[in-house]
Amino acid sequence: MRTRTLGSTGPAVSSIGLGCMGMSALYGTTDDAESTATIHAALDAGVNLLDTGDYYAMGLNELLIRDALRARPGSREQAVISVKFGALRDAAGGWAGYDGRPAAVKNFLAYSLNRLGTDHVDIYRLGRVDPAVPIEETVGAIAEEVQAGRVRHIGLSEVGADTLRRAASVAPICDLQIEYSLFSRGIEDEILPTARELGIGVTAYGVLSRGLLSGHWTRDRTPEAGDFRSLAPRFGAGNLDRNLDLVDALREVATSKGVTVAQAAIAWVLSRGEDIVPLVGARTRERLAESLGAGELALEAADLVAIEQAVPAKAVAGERYAARQMLDLDSER
Length: 333
Ligand SMILES: NC(=O)c1ccc[n+]([C@@H]2O[C@H](COP(=O)([O-])OP(=O)(O)OC[C@H]3O[C@@H](n4cnc5c(N)ncnc54)[C@H](OP(=O)(O)O)[C@@H]3O)[C@@H](O)[C@H]2O)c1
Known about the structure:
Helix content is 37%, strand content 17%. By secondary structure, the chain is an alpha/beta fold. The protein has one domain (3-332): TIM Barrel (Alpha-Beta Barrel), CATH 3.20.20. Helix 6 (161-168) links the parallel strand 9 and strand 10 (173-179). The longest helix is centred in the last third of the chain and has 18 residues, at 240-257. The protein starts with a strand and ends in a 7-residue tail after the last helix. The model has no long low-confidence stretch (mean pLDDT 97). The chain binds NADP nicotinamide-adenine-dinucleotide phosphate. The site of NADP nicotinamide-adenine-dinucleotide phosphate (NAP) has 29 residues, from strand 12 and helix 10.
């Protein structure tokens, strides 16, 4: 497994990270045994970056990671655990805004450390900016936890260029976690250049556009109730067919190279810079093996041209989130 360093101050991580969200939440039926086997297979393959959020299944995703690491002595030291916090939930699974107050940061962290069964989180980040709390205050509180040894590095999630600058003026930021894929190229104009100027790396999520860009999504598949994708505009009627036409075009390029659609999509993200680390949301060993195959691909300039001709920059139909959720994205302002 190749490694990449997150920003100018961050840790060395595997060039492909494992996003654990879908193992517990948002993508339909889950299977803890297969999820655990997938985490173990990732560790065995040299993947060390594990991403979670304390609000993914309200703590259950952290417990899954804790148990998977406990079952493999020595793996906690191997792993770089990235945790998002700040989302407020309710017992019905609803979402009720974000809390980035310093006291809340310390509270969320204390609970995460307990659930993860560890004395430190490697990268800690606010999931979405709290509009009521200046980012300087939230980052300042995490910086105090860095001083105390309970957090190693500070990250950000879905913020725009101005917020990146403000946060970086308070403390070193190792990475920005943000959606980036052939379907979601919004960061290229301003956010990515700003991150580069500030020495901040990118952990790219949704590199398979939540499965839409994986080659495995079909026109007749209906997401289960409660699956994020049942409300996601790009999967919706009117947009789905157009987006899967793009996937079909990508499939032709991938097939000509002897690789799968998912591998071409992940390899394209990897090709965008050494400072970008894709997080893949594999939930099974089979999907993980497919994803990690992308790390072995050497795409040539002509391949990249063909991929971008198949999926032109702004060709995707539909926004990346439903209208209400778009409002939470500092990165989209
Ligand atoms: N900061 C943020 O705001 C934010 C937001 C969302 C996610 N994230 C993080 O980023 C991680 C990745 O995001 P994501 O899960 O949405 O991204 P993704 O990798 O684009 O999508 C994962 C989905 O793609 C499907 N898939 C099909 N083929 C695959 C393959 N070969 N490898 C992996 N998945 C394949 C999986 O479906 P099946 O399992 O059904 O096959 C899974 O449902 C999350 O786990 C989470 O840690 C962060």
